[in-house]
Write a structure and sequence with these properties.
Helix content is 34%, strand content 29%.
Length: 341
């Protein structure tokens, strides 16, 4: 027998997933600590949970007037269901999708990966429960599969201009990488970021707390580059489950001619590949061209829009969604399921 419940705080996730060995939690954005940080920024969680005699599953959402959506912010690379692997997880997810029709007229999930079949399972469960499901590609993820290479072997395959830049500029800066949280180094990171070309941070306190948590756990890789003793570039990475995640990077515009960002990136790639022995390096979402110099593959990220057409509000949202599309310069790429696209 499956029991479903709804909760308005992420604290319940700690209890639900005390033993997460059978649950998809492969990235920082799947952990209860991450959702706690999101809640602390002022987001209102809506947790749909299902349990049977052995396992639990959850969809970590937020609610706005009957429209449920993924609990996330711009720091989140991905969002996915928290369910056990296998048939038990599929049954729990099916039940959650079915029960949500009593609570909402629309559910929007993004950015969902599918290299682990998350988007496939979610779209299938909501379709099975009677929702009108539309799947679109909403973003891309640049990624490097290390495939057992050393850094030197990886570096030999990089574009000639990138390799030349490092050869010419590497001696102009010194790099430092720490795996613990250091207040002085973090202050230097924040100062660099504020003076860089990057847009202002949305939730700098959240990012700092995240770095502190990751530093305590030994997952943080905070890198800085110095020129004449002054910090000129900074990056925040984390290491988890064989993957390196590149969260933030910035350099001073005034030091652009030093190519300190390139030198620091190379140092962190070397550390992740040769010392941390990661299998994957994840550069997050976005179509920035420079990511292609460092990464070799692109993975799609999906938006799964589920409408309950037994509800008048579901039809109204469908009309609004269709009208909005008429104003777009390009028709979104649609797919019945991610695998079919």
């Amino acid at each position: 027998m499956i029991e479903t419940r709804y909760h308005d705080t992420v604290n319940v996730l700690q209890e639900l997933f005390k033993d997460s060995s059978h649950t998809i939690m492969r990235a920082p954005f799947d952990r209860a600590e991450w959702f706690t940080l999101l809640e602390e920024t002022g987001l209102d969680p809506f947790i749909a949970a299902a349990s049977d005699a052995e396992h639990s599953a959850a969809l970590v959402l937020s609610q706005n007037n009957g429209h449920l959506s993924s609990l996330r912010n711009w720091y989140s690379f991905t969002w996915r269901q928290l369910v056990p692997y296998g048939e038990q997880g599929a049954q729990l997810l099916d039940e959650l999708a079915k029960q949500l029709k009593t609570t909402a007229h629309r559910v929007t999930l993004e950015p969902v990966p599918d290299e682990d079949a998350s988007a496939t399972y979610l779209s299938r469960s909501f379709s099975k429960a009677g929702w009108r499901v539309e799947v679109t590609r909403c973003d891309v993820n640049h990624v490097l599969y290390v495939q057992g290479r050393s850094f030197d072997e990886y570096w030999a395959s990089r574009p000639g201009q990138l390799r030349t830049t490092l050869k010419r500029k590497a001696k102009k800066v010194e790099t430092k990488i720490v795996s613990h949280f250091d207040h002085n180094l973090w202050a230097a990171y924040e100062a660099i970021y504020e003076s860089s070309w990057k847009p202002g941070e949305d939730q700098p306190e959240m990012l700092r707390k995240f770095a502190e948590i990751e530093g305590t756990a030994g997952r943080l890789r905070l890198g800085l580059a110095f020129h004449d003793g002054k910090p000129v570039a900074a990056q925040c990475w984390t290491i988890e489950n064989g993957s390196a995640f590149i969260h933030k990077l910035a350099h001073l515009q005034s030091a652009k001619n030093l190519s300190a960002g390139t030198t620091l990136s190379a140092a962190l790639f070397r550390h992740a590949i040769d010392e941390d022995k990661v299998d994957v390096i994840d550069f997050g979402t976005g179509t920035q061209r420079y990511k292609g110099d460092w990464m070799e593959d692109i993975r799609p990220r999906y938006r799964i829009d589920c409408l309950d057409l037994s509800s008048p509000r579901g039809w109204l949202d469908l009309a609004r969604l269709t009208a909005k599309r008429l104003t777009l310069p390009d028709v979104p790429e649609l797919a019945r399921s991610p695998k079919a696209s």
